[in-house]
Amino acid sequence: MFLPCLLLCLVAPAALAQLAAPSDAPSAGAQDDDLYLQALQSIAEGRRDDASQQLNALIERQPQHAGAWLDLALTQCALGNTEQAERLFAAFETRFDPARPILELIANTREQGCGQWEPFSSAVVMAGRGLDQNVNQGARTSRFVAGGPSGQVEYELSDDFRPRHDQYVHLSGEYLRELTPNGVLGFAQYQFRRNDSLHQYDSGSLFAGVEAPWRFGRWRVRGTATLGLVTLGGRLYQRQAQLQARVTPPLALPAGLRADLVGGVTYNTFPTLTNFDASTQELRASLWWRGLAGYASASIGYLNDHALARRPGGDRDGSFVSLLTRWPLLRGVSGELAYTRQTWRSSSAYAPGLIEQTRSQETHVLRGALVYPIDKRQSIQLEGRLVRNDENISIFQYNNRQLQLSWQWQLP
């Protein structure tokens, strides 16, 4: 029942305008108009309880606001409050002279019945086959020069530290479900990769969390809490806990544009590594554009990574830039292109007495993809990825190329 309400909010303003109060009734002020827009936004975001409160408040201020009466009736029906929805429908029909399309919407809603609140859910499954030219992030150079008590020493890197390529099978998926009628979401994501030969680099991850929306006046906020586990070579490698808030300020931007501010804190522990536990603070600004055909986004951010023990290099700070665009090409095929640049700079020498440099890292990732839809729920994706990791410590410098062909299935 939520879909008819949302469609009405998008396509019926003109029809509702014909149901305006008589000329001797006072017109709604700017504050009431803003309250109605907030209610419509709450409906669009799935915050039905908030929408009900806002529409009730508006009806108390403007008893002749036809749109508020009808939206409240549809919202109550979507929440499963059949008796209250029917009272609101009857009052709406008595107070106003609805146009035929609106009468048909009410009749269809009554025929279908309100029933109980039905949470929205969706799932995506992806399976793929890929080729990785540098599974182990092997160094670009075969030699490494380090300092020692008697001066510099040159080492020849073993094959374990040189690039090793392999093919792999990739499985991933995600599940999303509404937890409350007010837009709180629960989600889970998993990812698994098995190499054909280099099983010590097999990886997997599982993340789960909740996301809740709020609205403070015209400011929109979405808060997210996430817990995750990462495995490497069949063993637990990393635990992660994250809190994040996404804020959308009420900026007067052109149609299709949206600006967000994101702040977050992430806590990482590494059971198999000593002195690598850390907490990371992130602050990011993003700009999104969506048109009829494609979309694009750009982000820029600052990171601070605080070592919780005596990690090599100590604390570090960094920055990142991300660009993404997706457009339709030919015969239903769409193309996606993304670029990311991330930097890290440590606060002290990486390993005093052996590696005296203060580590400075700059990673560039270029990704391109072609997506061919088989039907409304299935698609095939061919993705290529280039990675260049530049560092002032040669043993950490590496390049990589990946190519992956995947099948994706969207579940209802």
Structural notes for this entry:
The protein has two domains: 2-112, Tetratricopeptide repeat domain (Serine Threonine Protein Phosphatase 5, Tetratricopeptide repeat, Alpha Horseshoe), CATH 1.25.40; 121-411, Beta Barrel (Porin). The strands form two sheets. Strands 1-4-5-6-7-8-9-10-11-12-13-14-15-16 form a 14-stranded antiparallel β-barrel. The protein has a two-stranded antiparallel sheet with strand order 2-3. With 412 residues, the protein is an alpha+beta fold. The longest helix has 15 residues, at 30-44. Helix 3 runs antiparallel to helix 4 (48-61). 20% of the residues lie in helices and 50% in strands. It contains seven helices and 16 strands.
Structure characteristics:
single chain; 412 residues; alpha+beta; Serine Threonine Protein Phosphatase 5, Tetratricopeptide repeat; Porin; 2 domains; two-stranded antiparallel sheet; 7 helices; 20% helix; elongated; disordered N terminus
